[in-house]
Amino acid sequence: MRLNRNKYVQDDTVGLSAIAHSEGWLTPPPGVARVTLKPWQQAIFWGLRVYIVVMLVVMGIGFFHGAGG
């Protein structure tokens, strides 16, 4: 890219394609596969889900109790 007289950036397609090629932006990303979790990892995630639900309930109770009083 270069600056012109009006100090606006102009596209330099040759330079941009050279950068894209040298950085590897033109190659497709590697595939992503689902990972099978171990039982203890599944238990941790379920625990986090339960924790989030409990915290939402507690916050809801606090919000509605505080809003009325």
Tell me about this structure:
With 69 residues, the chain is mainly alpha-helical. It has one domain. It is built from 2 helices and 2 strands, in the order E-E-H-H. The chain has a two-stranded antiparallel ribbon with strand order 1-2. The longest helix is centred in the C-terminal third of the chain and has 30 residues, at 39-68.
H/E element string? Answer: EEHH
- Biggest sheet, spatial arrangement of strands: 1-2
Question: What's the total count of β strands?
Answer: 2
Number of domains: 1
State the helix count.
2
Q: Biggest sheet, open or closed, and with what strands and sense?
A: 2 strands, antiparallel
Work out the strand percent: 5-15%
Unreliable segments of 5+ consecutive residues: none
Helix content: 55-70%
Q: What is the 3D form?
A: elongated
Radius of gyration: 27 Å
Q: From the helix content, strand content and strand pairing, which structural class follows?
A: mainly alpha
Mean pLDDT: 84
Structural descriptors:
69 residues, mainly alpha, 2 helices
Short description:
The protein is mainly α and 69 residues long.
Element layout with pairings:
Layout: E1 2-3, E2 9-10, H1 13-23, H2 39-68
Antiparallel strand pairs: 1-2
